[in-house]
Each structure stands twice: as structure tokens, then as C-alpha cells.
Automatic annotation (TrEMBL):
This is CAAX protease self-immunity. The keyword Transmembrane helix applies. The keyword Hydrolase applies. The chain crosses the membrane at residues 38-55, 76-96, 116-138, 150-170, 176-193, 200-220.
């Protein structure tokens, strides 16, 4: 029960701000201003450090000391494969939506990354990385470790992790929630097969950057 209480409290920290406001740490609303970018970057960094601390207390933060160094060729290759896989999933979902007869109406006709001042690009990059690391450390590493410790096997733990991940994207609409759920299944499977945080977080951040660059899938950031 203590495991589930800790999980619920941490998830509430992620979920409730997005539920009671127009945006969430993983959405595009933080692009409105440099102050918004900085606030999200700080919040996500502090949250990630909190989760790492909780894992490290019990000696479970080994994933941060992966033999895959952050900028090694293998890590970057894995991150690229993850980003392209998420991009393919987003494109497939968009194609299925259009083919089913539903109207195609992206929320924005222009890319936030293209219209953003050049001076904000470094801050935006840092924020995307902070969001990706925060979400991967919590939804993949922490949740899957804790749910396994609570007695769940990999498949139920994966489904719960993906569902909680999807719910944090509810403000973006049903299509984004479904895409986040599918993405959660995919990213969680990568974690199970290849534990380690850097390839997941870098791939996650790279996909979100691509999604913001391409208005057609810009509403499907994860």
C-alpha cells in the first residue's frame, strides 16, 4: 500500500496542474513566453531530482549510470530510432483519423519553433529536455520499478504506466490521449527491453521538437 500511495502522490503532482489549467508540463502552452519556458524547465528538473532521490534512497537509480553514455553513438542512434518511431505512430494515427472521415483541424497553422525568436531556442531546447527527462524518469523508470516491486508483472505494470501517462495529456483532447497511451506502451516496452534513461529521454525530446516543427502533428506532443 505504501508503494501505491507514493505513486499516487507523485502522479498527482504531474496530473493536477494540467487538469486545472489550460496546459500541462508536457504540452505546448509553455511556449507562450520565456518565463513560461523557464518555469516549466525548473519544475520538471526539480520533479525529476525528487524521483531520482526516492529511487536512490533504495539504491535503484542505476539506470542513470548506464554504460550507454549520454552522447555515445549507441545512445544517439537509439534516441533517433525512438523519435522516428514516435513520428511514424503520430503520422499513422493522423492518417487513420482523416481516413475515418473526421475533420482535420490542427490547433495551430504555424509551428511554434519556426515563429519563436532565435534567442529563445536554447531555452526551448533545455525545456524540452527537462520535460522529456522528467517524464521518462517518472513514467518509465520509477513507475515500472515500483509497480514491479508491488507484485505486478511487466505487462500490467506497462499498461498502468501508459494509462497514467496518457491521462496527463487529457487537456489536449481524446486523440492526443490515445496517442500518449500508445506512446507510453512503446516507450515502456523499450525500457523493459533496454533499461536506461538517456536514449528514452533524448528520443522523447527529439520527437516533441519534430512535432512542434510540423504543424500537422503539432497537437500530438508527448
Amino acid at each position: 500500500m505504501q508503494r501505491f500511495r507514493e505513486i499516487f502522490l507523485l502522479w498527482a503532482i504531474v496530473f493536477l496542474p494540467g487538469y486545472f489549467s489550460a496546459g500541462s508540463p508536457g504540452g505546448a502552452s509553455f511556449l507562450d513566453s520565456p518565463q513560461g519556458l523557464l518555469a516549466v524547465a525548473i519544475k520538471q528538473t526539480v520533479f525529476a531530482l525528487l524521483v531520482i532521490h526516492l529511487l536512490d534512497v533504495q539504491g535503484e537509480a542505476e539506470f542513470l549510470r548506464s554504460p550507454w553514455k549520454v552522447w555515445s553513438g549507441k545512445t544517439l542512434l537509439g534516441a533517433g530510432a525512438i523519435a522516428l518511431s514516435l513520428l511514424a505512430l503520430a503520422a499513422l494515427l493522423r492518417a487513420l483519423t482523416v481516413s475515418s472521415g473526421q475533420p482535420f483541424s490542427p490547433k495551430s497553422a504555424s509551428s511554434p519553433l519556426i515563429t519563436a525568436p532565435l534567442t529563445t531556442i536554447p531555452l526551448l531546447t533545455g525545456t524540452l529536455l527537462a520535460v522529456a527527462y522528467g517524464e521518462e524518469i517518472f513514467f518509465r523508470a520509477y513507475l515500472l520499478i515500483r509497480l514491479n516491486q508491488a507484485g505486478l508483472s511487466s505487462m500490467p505494470a506497462l499498461l498502468i504506466s501508459a494509462t497514467l501517462f496518457a491521462l496527463t495529456h487529457q487537456w489536449q483532447g481524446p486523440e492526443a490521449v490515445f496517442f500518449a497511451w500508445i506512446s507510453g506502451i512503446f516507450l515502456g516496452s523499450v525500457w523493459i527491453l533496454r533499461p536506461g534513461i538517456h536514449h528514452l529521454a533524448l528520443g522523447h525530446a527529439a520527437y516533441n521538437a519534430l512535432a512542434l516543427l510540423i504543424p500537422a502533428i503539432g497537437t500530438a506532443t508527448v
